[in-house]
Description:
The complex is a heterodimer of chains A (about 150) and B (about 525). Chain A is mainly α and about 150 residues long. In chain A, about 75% of the residues lie in helices and about 0% in strands. Chain A starts with a helix and ends with a helix. The interface between A and B is large, with 65 and 57 residues.
Amino acid sequence: MDSRRAEFVIDLVWLAFAGGYCAVALGYPPDGRMVPLTIGLVALALGLVHFGGNFIAVLRPFTHGDRDATAPIERSEIVAALWAAGLLAGIFLIGALAAIFLFFLFYFGLRGRRWLLGLVSAVVMTLVTWGLFGQLIALDLPVGILTRWVLNLF
Amino acid sequence: MIDAMLSGGALLLSLESILMILVGTLAGILVGATPGLGGVVLLSMLLPFLYGMSVKSGLILMLAAEGGIYFSGSITSILLNTPGTPEAAATVFDGYEMTKQGRPARALGISATATTLGGWVGFVLLLAVIPAMIPLIELFQPSDYLMLAILAIMLIGQLRAGSLTKGILSGLLGLMVSYVGFDPITGIQRFSFNILSLYNGFNIAAVALGLFAMAEMFRLYGQHSIVTDNGAVENAASFFAKLPPGARVIDGVYDVFRHWKLVLQSGLLGTFLGALPGVGGTAATFLSYGIAKRTSRHPDRFGTGIPEGIIAPEAAVMAKESGSLIPTVALGVPGSAGMAVVLSGLTILGVAPGPTMLSEHLNEIFAGAFTIGIASLLGSVLGLLMAPVLARALRVPPYIIVPFIFALCFLGAAASAYSFTMAVVVLGFGVVGFAMRHYHYSPAATMIGFVLGPVVEKNLYLAINLQGMSALTRPLTDFFTLVMLLMIAWPALKPGRRWLKTRREASLKSRLE
């Protein structure tokens, strides 16, 4: 997607977000909605002006700046976000300890063929997660939906 | 006041405080030397560890980390032509030139001493300004705070964003998400959609980790190597080997003392610019470099590897940190993105942003000021000792850091709220922060909006209910409103300014003819 089209989509998303925000805020008692509604309405009004910059050339320097077109998002940046999403999904599906172990092993194994580094990092980070976060900070580490389901089977 | 100052200094004499200074400074040095990881990322990563700490320890840890970053950021600028932090970019001009001329140790000596002394100029000013701020903040009424908070969000937005509306929209996003959760006025739940984990709103640490650390890692993942010339690393790492007179660290120290007026000038400038919300560290260092060049007797030699070219930006950078602490602690208005995260940290530590910080936590704030002074010296000394190691550390490809930051962001955010829902929040804000940076919005303004959201709400409520229409006649409120209107109108005046300039040039030309 080219940058102009992407910005157009972002502007539309903003309008939907600000509109939805105002609609939800209207459901609260007067004292509770006063500030969020004010901010939401300002956001909606400014969002409309900003959106107008897509069509009105005079507005564009104020709304989208006079910089050159933004470079498209690189594939590597999307891959990075997918790695992060994968780790998070793993935490909820197979549990924090297993997800962190597998994440480090496969990240280094697949990213740079560094399986040994992956194994060492996986062991160290799993121990850190269990020792520092699980035991010392007493964070309730997720067991994982799949793990719990498998455990229930037996 | 002297009592509070002494008590603040005494707070640093405990083992816990010394440990915090050491840990913070070391973390700052390591992160500062790693291009891609700046002060904001480090401070965001520290936020989850603040839970349960005392105000004193938390503030010392954050300010020591911030203080440790700057010199090590310059090490890579000087040795490898690669600024470790954006603030160290101006040091490249003369620092790397000196390295090419075979005097890297001298350049590092200049940088270390200038950073320390500049930090001390800022530290002394900070000690002088804090007592003066106390009577000043008593002049502020709710409407003044409200307008000041909005102005701060707008100023930071304009610094980082690609356009006027993008800056303001970024700040508005922060304000909007800050109202998720329990409403302190009516006691109702807002925008939490019956999700239990959101009853207390979005966790500050999770928002900061997402907007800054996570978003930065998405960008860093694709980078293979920061240093393209491995030979430069070898040369830099062996810079201690041969040190003829004129190329030693001590020669650099003498250089700085010989140019003490420039240190003072840059330190004062850095502190002043730091106190203005919205002026970033990079702008401060380049401005300091530019002024030093303009006021120099030999401006043509700047960029050829002269001490003044390193002293000017280095003395300003640490002083700026002291300066940006002034509006943060006195008014609850962060002067920079880093200070927005420090303010988030203070909120985690149970300190409400605003005037009560100075009245209720004066000793801790003085301890923080002393920390900046100590960290600027400690960061320079440790940085000098570790310079060869830090230069070699740059060989590590950035993508190796990425999974560790991912895991620590998720675990840290979960530990902050004792809920893994916050890990989802981190990822969500990570994607938002990345898109914002990519399309020239301002994540810093969003963070400041998020932190100041409750301040805006409380003061708007109080202004309407206590002051009413009389708020419009308050001189401070009017002043802040005027500045805001000028900011909005400034881009609209651009064609007029251009027309005036053309007319002036034409009349000058006709007069000359």
